[in-house]
Amino acid sequence: MGQHFLKDDAVLKKIILHISPQKDDLIIEIGAGKGALTFPLTATAGKVIAIEKDPSFIPFLQKKNIPNLTILEEDIMKVDFSKLMKAQNFKNKVKLVGNLPYSLSSPLLFKVLQEKELFSECIFLLQKEVAERICGQPGSKKYAPLSILFQIHFSTKLLFIVAPGSFSPPPKVHSALISLKSRDIPLFLIEQEELFRQFLKGVFKHRRKILRKNLEKLNFLLPQVDEALNKFGLERNLRPEQLSISQFVALFNFFYQIEE
C-alpha cells in the first residue's frame, strides 16, 4: 500500500517522547502496521485506538491482547472520528498520531482540517516537503495555502528530519516529524472555509506571477483589485508568498464582502 515502515529504534523513541503519552490520553494512531509505534504507546497512554487498513497485520496486532489497545480494521479516510470518540465515551480532545503514507498525506491532512475541533494535537511523520509547507512562513518558498489553513487553527512545528535509511523499504525522499497543537482560539474566524481554501489555491496557483495578476485570474476586476491593494497598503508588485495570514484574510473578506 505504498507504506514505508519505520525501523530505527532511536527515531521511534524520539517520536514517542514528542507524543508524550499520558494516562488520561486517548491516542488514535493512523496506520498501525507492525505495531512499532502502537505497542510502546500503550505502555503509558490511557487508551490507544490503532487503525489499520491492511488485514494481514490485524492478527499480529491483536495477538498481544493488550487491555488498553483497540485495533480497528478500517480505511482511515472513511473513519468518522466524532462517532469513534462517542463510542469510546471520550469527551475530551484526542491526540492523533501516525507515520502517514506519502500517497495519503494530502487527503488525510484536509480530513484533519475538517474535523480539527476534535484534536488537541496531531503528531505526524510525513514527507519532508509537505511538513515544510505546513510550517512555512511568509517570505519563504515553502509558504503555501497549506501553511495558512493549518496555522490559523494549529501551532505548527517541524520537530526533526528523518533520513530514508530509517525506513524499510527506504523512500526516495527525507521525512519529517511535525507537531500540530490545537489553538484555544483560531487566529481568525473564517466564515466560509471552503471558499477561503479555493481563494488561496487560486492566489498561489501561479507563484511566479505577482499577486495582482493572480487576483485578476480569479475574475476580480483590476479596479477592484487595486482598490483592495490600496485599502490594505499592499504594493502592486507583491508576490503571494510575501503576504501575512492576516492580509490574506483581509483580502478574502474584502472580495467576498464578508463583514469582519
TrEMBL record:
Domain Ribosomal RNA adenine methylase transferase N-terminal: 11-184
Pfam families linked to this entry: RrnaAD
Recorded GO CC terms: cytosol
InterPro entries, per database record: KsgA/Erm, rRNA_Ade_diMease-like_C, rRNA_Ade_Mease_Trfase_CS, rRNA_Ade_methylase_Trfase_N, rRNA_adenine_dimethylase, SAM-dependent_MTases_sf
Keywords tagged on the record: Cytoplasm, Methyltransferase, RNA-binding, rRNA processing, S-adenosyl-L-methionine, Transferase
PROSITE patterns, per database record: RRNA_A_DIMETH, SAM_RNA_A_N6_MT
One Gene Ontology MF term: rRNA (adenine-N6,N6-)-dimethyltransferase activity
Transmembrane segments: none
HAMAP family: 16SrRNA_methyltr_A
PANTHER family hit by this protein: DIMETHYLADENOSINE TRANSFERASE, DIMETHYLADENOSINE TRANSFERASE-RELATED
NCBIfam families the UniProt entry points to: ksgA (TIGR00755)
Protein's UniProt name: Ribosomal RNA adenine methylase transferase N-terminal domain-containing protein
Record organism: marine sediment metagenome
